[in-house]
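Appendix C: a fully annotated inverse folding record. The material below is reproduced so that readers can follow the format used throughout the book. The structure is listed first as tokens, followed by the designed sequence.
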């Protein structure tokens, strides 16, 4: 999967326990996740293997998109593995509204490492069970996906600063 994934590493000026907490608790996650200017309403967040996150993002112009994570691994405070998909309000997997060939499932693997009170988050992710058309759509959008996550991590950085 290495050539088909997005890989980002970012250091945050916060302890690992706090960084992990804001990734796994609804009252924190909804305040920083997503593109700049978007809001996130968390409908459900059960960060345990087999558990699910379900939420609705709203763009500045009012467009709504539902999404879900199904957690595979939750090793506090070291690692999170989840499969991310677009969904309806009930959590049923649907096609992305912006591209009919977008992969239905993307696996995300996050590791959290602490040194000197700072936490390095390594994020990798890519399509699973994807067709050739879905892989092509993902690869074409990889630069935008990376840019989107960089912005999300910027919001996380600001949020963490407000929590200390």
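Designed amino acids, in order:
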């Amino acid at each position: 999967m290495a050539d088909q994934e997005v890989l980002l590493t970012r250091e945050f000026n916060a302890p690992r326990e706090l960084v992990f907490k804001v990734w796994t608790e609804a009252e924190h996650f909804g305040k920083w996740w997503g593109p700049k200017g978007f809001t996130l309403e968390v409908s459900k967040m059960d960060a345990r293997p087999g558990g699910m996150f379900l939420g609705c993002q709203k763009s500045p112009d009012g467009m709504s998109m539902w999404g879900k994570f199904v957690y595979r691994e939750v090793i506090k405070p070291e690692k999170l593995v989840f499969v991310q998909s677009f969904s309806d309000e009930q959590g049923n997997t649907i096609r992305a509204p912006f591209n009919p060939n977008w992969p239905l499932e993307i696996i995300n693997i996050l590791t959290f490492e602490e040194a000197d009170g700072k936490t390095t988050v390594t994020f990798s992710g890519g399509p699973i069970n994807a067709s050739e058309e879905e892989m092509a759509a993902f690869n074409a959008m990889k630069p935008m996906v990376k840019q989107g996550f960089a912005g999300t991590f910027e919001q996380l950085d600001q949020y963490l600063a407000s929590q200390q």
